[in-house]
Amino acid sequence: MDKGSKGTSGLNRAKPYQLVLFPLNNGATNVYFVLILSYVAQFGSSILHLGIFASIMVTVMRVCDAITDPIIGAMMDRTSTRIGKFRPFMILGSAVMALSVITLYMLLPLIPQTMMAMRYVSFTVVYFIWVLGYTFQTSVTRAGQTVLTNDPNQRPMFTIFNTVGSLLGMGIMQFLIPLVKAMYDVKDAAGNVITSGYANPMVYCIITPIGIGISVLLTILAIIGIAEKDRPEFYGLGGKQEKVKLSEYLTIIKANKPMQRLMVAGAGCKLALAIATNTTVLLALYGIVMGNYNSLYLPMMVLGYVCAVPFFLLSMRTSQKKGQRASLIRYVSVALICYVGVLVLLLISDYGNPSLMLSFPFKGGSAINLYTVLFIVFFGVGYGAYYATADMPIPMVADCSDYETYRSGKYIPGIMGTMFSLVDKLVSSLAQTLVAFIFLACAGLADLPTDSTPYSMGIKVAVIVMFCVIPMLAWAATLLAMKGYSLTGEKMKEIQAVNAQRKRAIEQGMTVEEAMERYQTMDQVAERKN
Question: Are 206 and 105 in contact (CB under 8 A)?
């Protein structure tokens, strides 16, 4: 065992470079979160002319994937190769996603419109294959944390570096894609967009290789980060791992109450993020309701990221002192309160009154007004708080996995990770379908709007529902779920101490059953030390 991995308490600690590099795996998959989940419905509608079918299939395929998720999780729990348990899934997932997105964005548009049936079938099949690759790699982010570190002071740092990775992946793509899109906008003499760049296949041909290149680079760095820890001695209680039968998984999940509550909280956080950052929702907000997408989108995106920085630091300190549950509750509450202000500002916005609209003094905008200042304050603080907590449930999955080892002696990070991956995908796909149906219900739009779609009260109502109301309801669900979450900071310290003592006892010749029976509380661990 790596001598530098353990302290005197028996905790498994990560080296600084490991803490920095491994979370980049989430950045690698978040490239595709933007590239696919944020744009595939727009692509299907504008390029392949599939209408609302593209949005519906995002949900249908993800629901079908509910069958494959636990299978992949079980495969991971049973996997043991020369390059470890987790790295094979990172490599395979990255390769499958890269090939799938090339086929989707660069080859499917070559199918002529006279063969629409083939477009429908090909879109469905290719998207489903991409989902499988996404499951392979995203599940490693959650499961691999269990071998990286179990130190209660280090684990909250995963959220920080995970977010840095997300920014390198998601942030770069969110910044570049609108710039590429603007290059292909068709405008009239007055500068108004008459045909959106998102309707030009060249936009997707440009962003695809960029996204793949960034994702592959981040994947390689993440593999380097976990390489030293992806070994049997870091799996659960160590030694040879007992294989869990598929029939046992349901019983395990039923007994793991913290995991059940975390899945609800994670779904709430993910739904809020997926809806409020959805490309079409932001395009409708800044391009239609506020009238100037090119002037407003990038400044507001940058504002959100800048405001998130202090909240990341605050949330990490809160997590280290009081546990991740306390941190999640505190900052989701801040987001919920601030978005009450955002909701009020959107309700009073007036398309015909410049003083009640967002405005920046460039790219066709006018001077900043009081409305903009207030929006910046409420949105900046609210976005900063919820963006800092959006990925916080990810390291908490590792806590639930360690709790399962503490409760039953079983090490099953794969099934824990894929259960969470399943929630991630279902919620993300639900978000896109909700977007399409809400625009249809509120504004009567059969196709997703672009920045050339004219303003209407229906579009404003749809934006308010999706940008504010749904995220606020999702945060309320998160707070309710966390109320009964038992893995507090103190409880996790006990769990790690007991697991470490059991592992030492097993290494000294005790059976797993004997160690589980002998060491169950912190008092017994202290007794052993004395």
Answer: no
Tokens of residue 116, six digits: 């629409």
CA–CA distance, 76 with 70 (Å, rounded to integer): 10
Where helices occur in 103-229 by DSSP H, the ranges are: 116-143, 145-148, 157-166, 172-183, 201-226
- Cα-to-chain-centroid distance, residue 428: 9
Residue 515 has, within 13 A of its CA and on its CB side, a CA count of 24
Closest CA to 287 of 470, 47, 463, 55: 463
pLDDT over 90 percentage in the chain: 25
Contact in structure between 462 and 439 (CB atoms under 8 Å): yes
Cα–Cα distance for residue pair 452/190, rounded to 1 Å = 13
Cβ–Cβ under 8 Å, residues 73 and 139: yes
| DSSP one-letter code for 103 | I
Nearest to 128 by CA among 162, 152, 100: 100
**Contact indicator for 158, 19 with CB cutoff of 8 Å:** yes
Residue 210: Cβ within 10 Å count: 16
Q: φ and ψ at 413, to 5 degrees?
A: -65, -25
- Cα–Cα distances in Å, from 22 out to 48, 117, 266, 317? 37, 42, 21, 21
Distance, CA of 112 to CA of 116 (rounded, Å): 7
Q: Quote the pLDDT of residue 330.
A: 93
Cα three-residue angle 145-147-151, rounded to 5 degrees? 75
Q: Which candidate, 48, 74, 211, 52, places its Cα nearest to that of 126?
A: 48
Question: Can you tell me the distance from the alpha carbon of 36 to that of 153, in angstroms, rounded to the nearest whole number?
Answer: 35
Dist. CA 493–CA 152, nearest whole Å:
7
Q: What is the pLDDT of residues 226-262, one digit of tens each?
A: 999 998 888 877 655 556 666 667 777 788 899 888 8
Rounded Cα–Cα distance for residues 510 and 206 (Å): 59
Handedness of CA 312, 150, 170, 446 (dihedral sign): negative
Q: Rounded mean pLDDT of 345-371?
A: 83
Residue 302 CA, chain-centre distance (Å), reads 19
| DSSP states along 237-293 | TSSSPPPPPHHHHHHHHHH-HHHHHHHHHHHHHHHHHHHHT-HHHHIIIIIIISS-H
Segment 265-297, tens digit of pLDDT? 888 777 777 787 888 899 999 989 998 888 888
Which residues partner with 81 through β-bridges? Answer: 84
Count of beta carbons in the 10 Å neighbourhood of residue 91: 16
Q: Give the number of other CB atoms < 10 A from CB of residue 7.
A: 11
Query: For residues 210 and 208, what is the distance between their CA atoms, to the nearest angstrom?
Result: 5
Indicate the DSSP class of residue 465: I
Give dist(CA 96, CA 497) in Å, integer.
40
Length of the chain: 530
| Residue 528: Cβ within 10 Å count | 12
Q: How far is CA 3 from CA 15, 174, 218, 228, in A?
A: 11, 42, 28, 12
